[in-house]
Amino acid sequence: xxxxxxxxxxxxxxxxxxxxxxxxxxxxxxxxxxxxxxxxxxxxxxxxxxxxxxxxxxxxxxxxxxxxxxxxxxxxxxxxxxxxxxx
Length: 87
Hints:
Helix content: over 70%
Largest sheet: none
Radius of gyration: 23 Å
Strand content: under 5%
Distance between the termini: 38 Å
Structural class: mainly alpha
Order of helices and strands: HH
Shape: elongated
Number of helices: 2
């Protein structure tokens, strides 16, 4: 996974958290819908927020893994394959 992919995961999770937080706030303050409607949508929000948090955890683990791979590559000399020179 690339660093760009990690940032896409983070951005997607952040967007999902923002959207569902706004929806929950609106559902709590909105008394035009039935209680059942609001409960169903808040449960959906909780499930989506859980997925967003899981996505953030995965992205963080991948970012750490990428960081370790980069630092270990810099710390140890790489062995380059020798290719015969064309004449």
